[in-house]
């Protein structure tokens, strides 16, 4: 299927590795020029070179903290009129809410709620004026299946989802859609960090926990980042203009509800 987005421009944060990287690759394979943003310059430059070599599209890299005003300005200087915006940020490691300070909560809100909202504020009107826009937020299944040890993520990401529910209904008439991807367990660095943080409290080894999480999933495996990347690319396509304001699980069937 031709997704109809060749020549479009995409701005992706948290895109040097993991699920963000997979989304950047998938869009580039469809002929989209990509600007990828991340804090670690080494991983960023490596990913940028790999995408350019594999796809031949124009790849720009911005080493910046997207949660800061200066970081957002740098990202938009490199890609001032994105047709596609991906907001993605790692969540905090598991913990006990009794140990979290106000600063911990503010940092979580900055990374997972306020920064994505600010990036939407800075780009959505241009998309509306050009009559095309696709905004994807990588969130988490935790907004539908809260986990106590992920309270910082549960709270901040739920706030983002609530905000999107309103904005997405205002922009779709202008061919600008906004959707949230809710990944479950994926074979990624972030998932390894999450499992690693659970080792001490569980009394099990990393390998035992890693295998148990896969076994507990109906699919009996971890998701492949390329699977989420392909889903993202379709949602960014010209064929997805009737999909907006949705919280789309990609979790191997682990969510047990009907809606």
What does this molecule look like?
The chain is of the alpha/beta class and 259 residues long. It has helices spanning 18-29, 41-55, 69-78, 102-130, 151-171, 189-202, 206-216, 225-235, and strands spanning 9-13, 33-38, 59-63, 84-87, 133-138, 176-183, 247-250. Strands 3-2-1-4-5-6-7 form a seven-stranded parallel β-sheet, sandwiched between helices. 42% of the residues are buried. The model has no long low-confidence stretch (mean pLDDT 95). α1 (18-29) packs parallel to α2, α1 (18-29) crosses α8 and α4 runs parallel beside α5. It is globular and about 55 Å long. The chain contains eight helices and seven strands, in the order βαβαβαβαβαβαααβ.
Provide a quick synopsis of the model.
The protein is of the alpha/beta class and 259 residues long.
Largest sheet, strands/sense/barrel? 7 strands, parallel
* Order of SSEs: EHEHEHEHEHEHHHE
Shape from CA axes?
globular
CA(first)-CA(last) distance: 28 Å
Structural class: alpha/beta
Q: Report the mean per-residue pLDDT as an integer.
A: 95
Low-confidence stretches: none
Strand content: 5-15%
* Rg result: 18 Å
How many strands? 7
Provide the helix percentage. Answer: 40-55%
Q: How do the strands of the widest beta sheet line up side by side? A: 3-2-1-4-5-6-7
Number of helices: 8
List keywords for this structure.
7 strands; globular; seven-stranded parallel beta sheet; 259 residues; 47% helix; alpha/beta
Outline the fold blueprint.
Blueprint lengths: L8 E5 L4 H12 L3 E6 L2 H15 L3 E5 L5 H10 L5 E4 L14 H29 L2 E6 L12 H21 L4 E8 L5 H14 L3 H11 L8 H11 L11 E4 L9
Parallel strand pairs: 1-2, 1-4, 2-3, 4-5, 5-6, 6-7
